[in-house]
Design goal:
Layout lengths: L4 E4 L6 H10 L2 E4 L1 H18 L25 H12 L3 E4 L2 H15 L8 H12 L3 E2 L2 E3 L8 H11 L4 E3 L5 E3 H7 L11 H6 L3 H31 L9 H5 L4 H14 L19 H4 L1 H23 L7 E3 L8 E3 L7 H29 L22 H17 L21 H34 L8 H12 L11 H13 L2 H10 L4
Parallel strand pairs: 1-2
Antiparallel strand pairs: 3-5, 4-6, 6-7, 8-9
Length: about 525
């Protein structure tokens, strides 16, 4: 994939394409096959529009108003009215990367040749993305069925030269001004086009793709911090032996155990669980780390499979079906816009994220409790009693975990009827996606607090001792300190230090530091 130019064809796109456009500002280009397919599907719509029989989305109203046949002279107004009335979002602005992903995914479906829009509609959407114009989209307005209607309608408005958008400088301005500055002509929508622009699961899918990428990094980071905590607590790495995980053959579990084992290779601290306070086995939060993280990894694998299928899909209603030579092309109503497949996995990921955070917080608490830390000072404080150490850092971590548990309550089990009971079962997939974004951010912070505590504990443990940490651990300690995250010492203003630790985890620096010794981790 060329990071500067993502080519969109009729057969779908990849998750990497979405990330490149949404997060890296890659330019998009429609290939000849896409334009040819778009033209063919438009020919079908034009033929149907000329007939006296009503066709949903072409010559009728929408939703519960689909019973009315719309005469040709009112059809342009019908499309404008659809977009304007559906651009009814409220609440805070949605992040730029989400809006870019949403637009790019809608462009992907337009390029499939299944929606019946004219080439100019797809070309204008590509031009807006390439000009770094981002429609102003709001938090609330999608029920995750009949598409992410309000968010997509705010984007469609911008194609029409209406509404508001963020320019390349991030300032919100009238869309008409921004289009004019970049030489982009607003589109006068024709039959079917307004509907084709708003009837897709693109927002929730874009957020799923980005969450999968972020969670993949965080699962690697969590394996590393679990290994650091095991080492700091003088635990045993024998529970990570491959043969133990082979007899319960979950792929994610094996991958997490392998990551931990490679981080701990060569450690002089592991295996001392039989010393001063003998332990037959470590606590669950240490011993079961691969099982919990591994289950989350397997959930992530399933979510990626769903995302891949959606990236190959053409989501619209009605949809254009090509003729096969024996019959003409036609337009068929369908239910492919329902967000259930995406909504479910968004909720699954939020549940897995909450549990991963929960076990990480338990390890942190163990590091700070002198009754369970096997010789570490209370709260890893320099002078306990005078200094409080990381006592309140764990409070912050616990608050994040509690919030993650709330965010794990599934959105997709809810449904609220709409459109005068025509749309009487909805997915709430957009809501599932929005809360997952918060959950992913919280999880990164929870893992950062564990890393902060475990690295401090390791330095305390090895200062003045003949015991040496694993080579990978030593590389991590050096990288953490180089990044401005401090080690043991007197109490100091903790919030900036914790934020530096979060950036270190979130941006993948923790994994990169370990991999200088271990090689690539899963």
């Amino acid at each position: 994939m060329d990071m500067q130019n993502v080519v969109v064809g009729p057969t779908g796109i990849t998750a990497d394409d979405v990330l490149a456009v949404a997060r890296s500002g890659a330019r998009v280009e429609l290939n000849d096959a896409a334009l040819a397919g778009i033209t063919r599907s438009r020919d079908v719509i034009d033929a149907l529009a000329a007939k006296p029989e009503p066709v949903y989305g072409v010559s009728t109203g929408f939703g519960a108003l689909a019973v009315r046949h719309i005469s040709p002279e009112l059809r342009a107004q019908l499309q404008r009215s659809l977009v304007r009335s559906h651009a009814a979002g409220m609440g805070p602005a949605v992040e730029r990367e989400v809006v870019r992903a949403l637009m790019f995914l809608r462009l992907k479906t337009l390029a499939s040749g299944r929606t019946g829009v004219r080439p100019v509609v797809a070309e204008t959407m590509a031009a807006i993305l390439n000009a770094d114009i981002t429609p102003a989209v709001h938090e609330y307005g999608s029920l995750g069925c009949s598409g992410d209607l309000a968010p997509l309608a705010h984007c469609a408005q911008v194609l029409m030269g209406e509404g508001e958008a963020l320019g390349p400088d991030g300032a919100v301005r009238p869309a008409a001004e921004l289009l004019a500055e970049h030489g982009i002509e607003p589109v006068e929508l024709r039959e079917k086009e307004g509907l084709a622009l708003i009837n897709g699961t693109d927002g929730m899918l874009g957020m799923l793709v980005m969450a999968c990428a972020d969670l993949a990094r965080l699962y690697t980071a969590a394996d590393i911090t679990a290994a650091l905590s095991l080492e700091a607590l003088l635990g045993t790495d024998r529970v990570l032996a491959p043969e133990l995980h082979a007899i319960r053959p979950h792929p994610g579990q094996a991958a997490s155990a392998d990551n931990m084992r490679r981080v701990l290779a060569g450690s002089g601290l592991t295996g001392h669980h039989q010393d001063d306070a003998p332990r037959v086995q470590d606590a669950y939060s240490i011993r079961c780390a691969p099982q919990v993280a591994g289950a989350g990894r397997d959930t992530l694998t399933h979510a990626r499979l769903v995302a891949e299928r959606e990236l190959a899909a053409a989501i619209d209603n009605p949809v254009v079906i090509d003729g096969d030579g024996s019959q003409e092309g036609r337009v068929e109503s369908n239910g492919n816009f329902h967000g259930a497949p995406v909504g479910y996995v968004l909720d699954f990921l939020a549940i897995a994220a909450a549990d991963l955070a929960s076990i990480a917080e338990r390890r942190t608490d163990r590091l700070l409790d002198r009754n369970r830390s096997h010789g570490l000072p209370p709260f890893l404080a320099d002078d306990p009693g005078v200094d409080s150490g990381l006592m309140i850092a764990q409070y912050t971590q616990a608050a994040l975990v509690s919030e993650l548990k709330r965010l794990a309550v599934p959105a997709s089990v809810d449904s609220i009827p709409s459109s005068a009971m025509q749309e009487d079962h909805v997915s709430m997939g957009w809501s599932a996606a929005r809360k997952l974004r918060t959950a992913v951010d919280n999880l990164g912070r929870v893992i950062a607090v564990e890393m902060f505590a475990a690295t401090r504990a390791l330095e305390i443990r090895t200062t003045g001792s003949a015991l040496r940490p694993a080579p990978a651990t030593a590389a991590i300690l050096a990288a953490v300190r180089d990044a401005g995250v401090p080690g043991p010492g007197r109490d100091r203003f903790l919030a900036p230090d914790l934020e530096a630790a979060h950036v270190f985890v979130r941006d993948g620096a923790l994994a990169r530091a370990a991999e200088t010794v271990t090689g690539p981790l899963a």
